[in-house]
Sequence to fold (418 residues):
Amino acid sequence: MTNFYEINGNKELLRQQLNYVALNSPFYKKHFYDNKINIQEITSYKEFRNIPITSKEDLQHHNKELFAVPQDEIIDYVTTSGTLGNPVSFALNEADLNRLAENERQSFEMLGIKKSSVVQITTTLDRRFMAGMAYFLGLRKLGAGIIRTGSGLPGLQWESIARFKPEYLVAVPSFLLKMVDYAIQNGIDYKKSSVKTVVCIGEPLRNSDFSLNSLGNRIKELWNIELFSTYASTEMGTAFTECKFHTGNHSLTELIFAEVLDENHQPVAVGGIGELVVTPLQVQTIPLVRFATGDMVKFYGENCECGRNSLRISTPVGRKKQMIKLKGTSLYPQQIINLLTAFQSLKIFVIEARLNETKNDEILIRIPDDLIEISALQEHLQSGLKVKVKLKKTSTKKIEEMKFSKEGRKPKLFHDYR
Ligand SMILES: [Zn+2]
Fold:
């Protein structure tokens, strides 16, 4: 099997992290004991792989035992996004906050942000969200100029751009479409604004051949700015970032040890898709070892044209649990969401997955009953997915009710009834 992980991992930092965890984490003390793992015996990737993975369920069921520092050391409390299931409590101490700042500094530096840059953060800094603050801390460490506009409010975004002339935005890609919409409606000459580059979060931008996906293309057609993809999560506390060659997202080797594993927990070969399993390095408050993210990513290997030889992966092509099998083709809700988002006249939709009588997956997309371009949408989906999916005309009110359910803090575009 590949020896990528032997070459890539920062062995010394990984060893230190395992020592720290074995000494301080009640959860891992038990996990190692129950599974007869002696970390002193781990000298290669082969032995490291004997450590059983940690699942999302472990985080939910053993949240308290995962805390590895005394409570009075904790500074910042956050939660995971809770895309699947309930959000889990996370926290950071002084060392973790410094580490988070360093993580984001390296990530921003990779895509070209310098001390002289001005960056507008259009994501939330509060709401128990780790990333927003990470951006602020990372930019602060770089010494760049920061404008904290926060999420939403396209009017305030444009007013701030006119006022402070940022060259960079940190943004969710689909929000850029909202900003363009607002600019067009309000006669703002957005194409001549100071913004040249966007650090994108939360949504994939590219296909696995590195070309822009439909969402990326739609943004680019409307507004010719450079889009960088980043991928991170609270559990990882680390970002995977594109360099200027845009050929996958680099890992930061001093901050995370990453593996891409198949269903049998074997490393996938270059070009394969597998689950991202991470061991964040230098984390103190909630250290995780071989945490299975549930995110399916494509593994691009190492040796990038930029000269970095850290591991490169795609942003998630989907969630492991949400995989849909249609006529022998595996696909993920996110691929369908990307295609639907890119279809301009479609303002709202939800996707449903069910098992049919023969226990095979079935997909139904609810679209507004006043949508005219049905056959164009069908064609658009078929060319993107290579399989045919069912569309169902539904009242906008009903779709809205499904999308904005009372429980979730995020709109729910995918409803899994399997
Ligand atoms: Zn590179």
